[in-house]
Automatic annotation (TrEMBL), chains A, B:
Species the sequence originates in: Chitinimonas lacunae
Keywords carried by this UniProt record: Glutamine amidotransferase, Glycosyltransferase, Transferase
Signal peptide: none
Domain Glutamine amidotransferase type-2: 2-255
Keyword Transferase attributed: yes
SUPFAM superfamilies: N-terminal nucleophile aminohydrolases (Ntn hydrolases) (SSF56235)
Any one GO molecular function term: glycosyltransferase activity
Entry-linked InterPro entries: EgtC-like, GATase_2_dom, Ntn_hydrolases_N
Name recorded for this polypeptide: Class II glutamine amidotransferase
One Pfam match: GATase_4
EC number per UniProt: 2.4.2.-
């Protein structure tokens, strides 16, 4: 299996602290050592950093940990390969463009019987069940809507599609187009919303504490979503199996 | 205007030496300081590094310069913004997926009258003429072929499309799908094919010399393509206006 990390905020925020804990699980405090990746949205732009080296020792992970990229939507993934060999093509997150926006997707779980890809528009480059599902999902969206629909419509379809996928196996996933971040829980996802008054947080995976009040304003809202809580002195909310949340401007909502 | 750098080889090779010279032109030896990017193909996988900081000082460029990523197809770009503001969404190279392969594109030049985008499949995320042309190009390919055609057919269409674009302005571009690298010259592109017996090369933009014979075997073929020659003690071949070359396994051919 793998682990997921996501962040959604109302002001561009760096993810250095959370990423430092998360990346230790890729070969140090945990065994997810078959590559890792992280995608940052900055306005409409998006950059992905990918490596098939374990995140605990990857020089690119070292850069990401030390280079504060300010973003409102981030998705990261550390991999323990189950379907598909260890390679760059199989490294999450995956990215495609739809309706003139980038879409980024990462998945934790196993799907033995993924839905058939009957379209021609989105095709997997690697051979993971995860990228396959991402392509299927975008193909369905592209089929239903020629252009960006109203959000209520979009989220309703997303809920249908997530429910369909969830019937086929374990599908914890995160999806973002830079405007919001969707998190779907099959078995295990936790989140926390940090807001004023901000306090101190201490990592589970490394003895590091940060005082968020030094880096934030009263108005900041920062949601962090992770397979397992990243800090040991804060209260994380477990998501329920089958639950889909849309995080926007740092707050979760039920679509 | 901007500058382009490409590499195509018959064995995975790192681009650290060439990139060190090239990236100096982004804010140090030259004025292309409005962001930069580089895309590496590794088998079917592909990773892009992008930054809107000048490549001469970008921490990501520093990483790329020191982290020897072995690749058979690389495309890099340093930007001097003409169309579209300085932003991540406008930073080359651009990437899309077609027929289950990633495609990477970078452009140097100006096109006042880009062809109309009449399809729905590929849409620009940013607002450069370059990404617009890339989308148009992929849309045409997707329209003509449902799946990968025979290469002769593909290259013939590519030649048509490049000629069409070239009538509309200055279109120096590089395009790769990881199997080969296409370079089209409107005004300025040079290339060199390095092969045995390998010798020493000295950068134009930094006083660094490398002895390629220490890093290569007798069978290696490495083509480097750049807007302006990167070394001052080797003979680079200028491409002719209107010329399209396909580099494959380290050698150029006329499609």
């Amino acid at each position: 299996m793998c682990q997921l990390l996501g962040m959604n905020c109302n002001v561009p925020t760096d993810i250095c602290f959370s990423f430092e804990g998360f990346r230790r699980r890729g070969g140090d405090t945990d065994h997810h050592r078959d590559g890792w990746g992280i995608g940052f949205f900055e306005d409409r732009g998006c950059r992905l950093f990918l490596d098939y080296q374990p995140s605990a020792i990857s020089p690119i992970a070292e850069l990401v940990r030390n280079y504060p990229i300010k973003s409102t939507n981030v998705i990261a993934h550390i991999r323990k390969a189950t379907v598909g060999e260890v390679s760059l093509a199989n490294t999450h997150p995956f990215r495609r463009e739809l309706w003139g926006r980038y879409w980024v997707f990462a998945h934790n779980g196993d799907v033995k019987d993924p839905p058939r890809l009957d379209g021609h528009r989105f095709r997997p480059v690697g051979n993971t069940d995860s990228e396959h599902m991402f392509c299927w999902l975008l193909e369905r969206l592209a089929e239903r809507f020629v252009d960006f629909p109203a959000e209520a419509e979009l989220f309703a379809v997303l809920r249908e599609l997530a429910a369909d996928l969830a019937q086929r196996g374990v599908v914890n996933f995160m999806l973002s187009n830079g405007q919001w971040l969707a998190a779907h829980c099959s078995t295990r996802l936790h989140y926390i919303v940090r807001q004023a008054p901000f306090g101190c947080a201490h990592l589970v995976d490394n003895d590091i504490t940060v005082d968020f009040s030094e880096y934030t304003t009263q108005r900041d809202l920062v949601s962090v979503i992770a397979t397992q809580p990243l800090t040991d002195n804060e209260v994380w909310t477990p998501m329920a199996p089958g639950e889909l949340l849309i995080f926007r401007d740092g707050m979760p909502m039920r679509p």
